[in-house]
Predict the structure.
Amino acid sequence: MDSTASIPEVVTHPTLLFRVGSDLYGCHINDAQEIIPLRAMTRIPGSPAFVRGLINMRGTIVTVLDLGVRLDPARRPAVEGSILLIRHHERLVGVVVEEVVDVRPLVIDDDEARRSRGPVVRGVATFDDAAVIVLDLDALITQVLLS
């Protein structure tokens, strides 16, 4: 009997790691089209608190969401950080994070996370002994646009 046949193949995913508060999150590297510094935005009257506003990105108007405020409505908006530019269908959407940490190949456990965290979570992983919640930013943006 071949003893290597029972060892499951370990699949890693290139993951962009970022912080929101003290929590470490990630997304597939292909989810983020570009990363830009946090900048001034034009507020949209009557929009929810997690919709930070609009920016002009090389002639394209981009709606910017604050991930921290979306995940925890009691949280104050980020004053420093970066904007992840995400291509959502034909639209460009910005997501504010407090710190971009690194890009690393991670082994993602997707079974546990989907059962306990909902549709915007792809899975959980570990980076430097810290838990990483790996998000599906496309699903998060879809959820926001439908709410």
